[in-house]
Specification:
Bound molecules: adenosine monophosphate, glycine
CATH class of the largest domain: Alpha Beta
CATH superfamily of the largest domain: ATP-grasp fold, B domain
Strand content: 25-35%
Largest sheet: 9 strands, antiparallel
Distance between the termini: 42 Å
CATH topology of the largest domain: D-amino Acid Aminotransferase, Chain A, domain 1
Length: 429
């Protein structure tokens, strides 16, 4: 099978690494890719914004399957354009990508399908939004409807903060993404992510993970795309996972099919484990990054037939096969991330880190002549497995310590929630 993988992050490096192990793979291309992905794929200089160029290129090269990593091209309709010329795609149509692209759409779907989520209301006018605040108590959550690069959510502790967020979002701070806002009840509990693959009808659960959103240790500092993750997240017990699939994932897949906009691709459910059960915080329509890195190192079966079945509508309901292991990823970011990252800094020691037993997935790296340098905020995701999260973490940090990246930083406490739960013997590094 000839596969084109789209994206350039650690998520896509992990997908390339896993796809390259498939005996069914004939040829792997990646666009735009990165130097890590280049070990498994031929890189193609295509921009993810240029949909006609991607479609034409895929047709010319007899691509059998396109795997779309990030959300923006999905929301923009790239999967539709490829399907229109008969190419199989892993990833939803623009209509189904509204599950990530519009929070108001997803809330309406939750109402229709009876999916448990925070009490909510959508607004286009500030006066009505402010008048509704009293219904929600404090803290209250104010969200821009559309994609806002993780910055469109304010958890307001006071009414004044909430009103300020309403004015800012409806005033155009996030452009069209904030033309509609959602106000919702604040949920208490622990957050966990659950992944599932669907072909529009069937569902294969793809495991759980917990991310670390804040830049610095102790969950301090600004929000990021994710500074580390581990899988499985034991807080989502098998019983809770079954409940979340039955009450959240499957009803969403069924409701999308009933609406004539079936969801095919990877559904990433951000859940809050509340006292009254799992509730949906948000859907994403793709793998998470760095969640994908930990899931791929744990998956104990060929990824390609799974993705191909999702793309062609031939998936069957069944559990995926997993290694009897946990995985943990530590992100190395360039100094300044998530603000203005210092790019161009030299990166060394990757071979030593891999010899220490980790996978070093590239994200924002590029080659400057022979030298590997930082090219964006998140630079590497150092990922290791172990019998438990504690062992995976010890291996991941041993590999991190073998890397020489003086203009970068990482969190030192990835996995702290899980370590607090694991027996002390495993917690010792
Ligand atoms: P979202 O972009 O919707 O995932 O929101 C970003 C983050 O805000 C989530 O990962 C949660 O930590 C937090 N959050 C969003 N909605 C709520 C809510 N209703 N209650 C509590 N925390 C929330
Ligand atoms: N790590 C969170 C995300 O990919 O959205």
């Amino acid at each position: 099978m000839n596969v084109l993988l789209l994206g350039s992050g650690g998520r896509e490096h992990a997908l390339a690494w896993k796809l390259a192990q498939s005996p069914l793979l004939a040829k792997l291309w990646a666009a735009p890719g990165n130097p890590g992905i280049a070990a498994y794929a031929e890189l193609v200089a295509l921009s993810l914004n240029d949909r006609p160029a991607i479609v034409a290129w895929a047709q010319r090269h007899a691509v059998d399957l396109v795997v779309i990593g990030p959300e923006q091209p999905l929301v923009d309709g790239l999967a539709d354009d490829l399907r229109a010329v008969g190419i199989a795609v892993v990833g939803p149509s623009a209509a189904a990508a509204r599950l990530e692209g519009s929070k108001a759409f997803t809330k309406a779907l939750c109402d229709t399908a009876g999916i448990p989520t925070a009490a909510h209301a959508s607004f286009e006018a500030a006066a009505a939004a402010k008048a509704a605040l009293a219904r929600f108590g404090l803290p209250v959550v104010v969200k821009a409807d559309g994609l806002a690069a993780g910055k469109g959510v304010v958890i307001a502790a006071t009414r004044e903060e909430a009103e300020e967020a309403i004015d800012e979002m409806l005033g155009g701070r996030f452009g069209a993404a904030g033309a509609t806002i959602v106000i919702e009840e604040h949920l208490d509990g622990e957050e966990v992510s659950l992944f599932a693959l669907s072909d529009g009808r069937s569902v294969v659960p793809l495991g759980s993970a917990q991310d670390h959103k804040r830049a610095f240790d102790g969950d301090e500092g600004p929000n990021t795309g994710g500074m580390g993750a581990y899988s499985p997240a034991s807080v989502l017990t098998p019983a809770l996972e079954r409940q979340a699939i039955a009450e959240i994932v499957r009803p969403a897949v069924d409701a999308m099919a009933t609406a004539g906009t079936p969801f095919s691709g990877v559904l990433f459910a951000g859940l809050m484990l509340t006292a009254t059960g799992p509730k949906l915080i948000e859907f994403n329509v793709r793998f998470g990054d760095p969640e994908c890195q930990v899931l791929m190192t744990r998956l104990d079966e060929d990824l390609l037939p799974l993705l191909d079945a999702a793309a062609r509508g031939t998936l069957v309901d069944r559990p995926a096969r997993w290694k009897d292991a946990a995985a943990l990823a530590v992100v190395l970011a360039a100094d300044g991330y998530p603000g203005m990252p210092a790019t161009g800094g030299a990166i060394g020691g990757i071979a030593g880190a891999e010899a220490a037993g980790a996978h070093v997935f590239h994200a924002g790296t590029r080659l400057d002549g022979e030298a590997l340098v930082a090219a964006a905020g998140r630079v590497l995701a150092v990922t290791a497995t172990g019998a438990g999260v504690g062992e995976a973490r010890a291996r991941a940090y041993a590999a991190v310590d073998a890397i020489d990246f003086p203009t970068g930083f990482c969190r030192r406490d990835i996995g702290w929630r899980e370590l607090a739960r694991e027996p002390a013997t495993e917690a010792a590094p």
